[in-house]
Automatic annotation (TrEMBL):
<dbReference type="GO" id="GO:0042866">
    <property type="term" value="P:pyruvate biosynthetic process"/>
</dbReference>
<feature type="binding site">
    <location>
        <position position="232"/>
    </location>
    <ligand>
        <name>substrate</name>
    </ligand>
</feature>
<feature type="binding site">
    <location>
        <position position="85"/>
    </location>
    <ligand>
        <name>Mg(2+)</name>
    </ligand>
</feature>
<dbReference type="GO" id="GO:0019629">
    <property type="term" value="P:propionate catabolic process, 2-methylcitrate cycle"/>
</dbReference>
<dbReference type="GO" id="GO:0000287">
    <property type="term" value="F:magnesium ion binding"/>
</dbReference>
<keyword id="KW-0479">Metal-binding</keyword>
<keyword id="KW-0460">Magnesium</keyword>
<comment type="subunit">
    <text>Homotetramer; dimer of dimers.</text>
</comment>
<dbReference type="GO" id="GO:0046421">
    <property type="term" value="F:methylisocitrate lyase activity"/>
</dbReference>
<keyword id="KW-0210">Decarboxylase</keyword>
<comment type="similarity">
    <text>Belongs to the isocitrate lyase/PEP mutase superfamily. Oxaloacetate decarboxylase family.</text>
</comment>
<protein>
    <recommendedName>
        <fullName>Oxaloacetate decarboxylase</fullName>
        <ecNumber>4.1.1.112</ecNumber>
    </recommendedName>
</protein>
<keyword id="KW-0456">Lyase</keyword>
<feature type="binding site">
    <location>
        <position position="156"/>
    </location>
    <ligand>
        <name>substrate</name>
    </ligand>
</feature>
<comment type="similarity">
    <text>Belongs to the isocitrate lyase family. Oxaloacetate decarboxylase subfamily.</text>
</comment>
<dbReference type="Pfam" id="PF13714">
    <property type="entry name" value="PEP_mutase"/>
</dbReference>
<dbReference type="InterPro" id="IPR039556">
    <property type="entry name" value="ICL/PEPM"/>
</dbReference>
């Protein structure tokens, strides 16, 4: 597969002048839907991976292999440049390097490595960050694991939510100096926070879990934010739709009377039916 083209398109978003919302995707069909609707980039979050693969909450019990397998299934289904949340890189800096190797092979366009202490240690009820030097080591290991120079390595910190703006700036500067391509900030609440951080570094920002002051895409774009997450509603909508459909069927609703069932046109589109029809004719001599 040619993964480089989608990595170049992801880099063009980072280098551009706009701020976009990614499509939150979790499997091949959802990725194709996001691509067909024109999303510039897709996002495959750790929480969503835990839901889709394990049916579990976001407690980092998923393994790297499970995450990379699902990322590969998403990537091979289309050409959407995919940003993935690689959590803390599944261990220490050596695990981070391995994580980048596996996710690059799985075709991701970009990945985040965060400096949160994960999984949650015994007896800890609040999130904590690894020391900044350990974070730097993890960013360096991530960059050392990259083979395709077009792959985007993003440093991620929750320091805004856990420590302070000053600590966030110190971490962002240190990870920028280590060579990451962008910084992903969790928990930004105010414009003042984003101004302070974007003014302290040269690399672009990606925001997750923002407050209501930070929803204007033009303002975000003017402050070097290139991607802003909106949450992961698509998988929640899918859960609700499956629930409602099974509930209605269980209650005796005739299949023809169900609401919100994909049309056969939509099913053909998301399964790339025309391609398979062509291949069936060409390779099986039928149709
Ligand atoms: O991606 C986000 O919005 C936050 C996150 O880490 C996840 O959902 O796993
Ligand atoms: Mg996550």
């Amino acid at each position: 597969m040619d993964w480089t083209d989608r990595r170049k398109r992801f880099r063009a978003v980072l280098a551009g002048a706009r701020c976009v919302h990614p499509g939150s995707v979790f499997d091949p069909l959802s990725a194709r839907i996001a691509e067909d609707l024109g999303f510039e980039v897709g996002m495959f979050a750790g929480s969503v991976a835990s839901l889709a693969v394990l049916g579990a909450p976001d407690l980092i019990v998923l393994t790297l292999s499970e995450f990379a397998d699902q990322a590969y299934r998403i990537n091979r289904a289309g050409k959407l440049p995919l940003l993935v949340d690689a959590d803390h890189g599944y261990g220490n800096a050596l695990n981070v390097k391995r994580t980048v190797e596996e996710l690059e092979t799985a075709g991701v366009a970009a990945l985040t490595i965060e400096d949160t202490v994960l999984p949650r240690p015994y007896g800890e009820d609040k999130p904590a960050l690894v020391p900044i030097d350990e974070g730097i080591g993890k960013m360096k290991a991530a960059l050392a694991g990259r083979q395709d120079p077009h792959l985007v390595v993003v440093g991620r910190t929750s320091a805004l939510a856990v420590t302070s703006v000053e600590d966030t700036i110190a971490r962002a500067r240190a990870y920028e100096a280590a060579g990451v391509d962008a910084m992903f900030l969790v928990g930004a609440r105010t414009r003042a926070q984003v101004e302070a951080i974007s003014g302290a570094i040269r690399i672009p920002l990606i925001l997750g879990g923002v407050g209501p002051e930070l929803t204007d895409l033009d303002w975000l774009a003017a402050h070097d934010v290139r991607i802003s997450l909106q949450g992961h509603q698509p998988i929640m909508a899918a859960v609700q739709a499956v629930h409602d459909t099974l509930k209605a069927l269980r209650a005796g609703t005739p299949p023809a009377k169900l609401a919100n069932i994909a049309s056969s046109d939509l099913m053909k589109r998301v399964t790339r039916d025309a391609d398979y029809a062509r291949w069936t004719k060409e390779f099986l001599g039928v149709g």
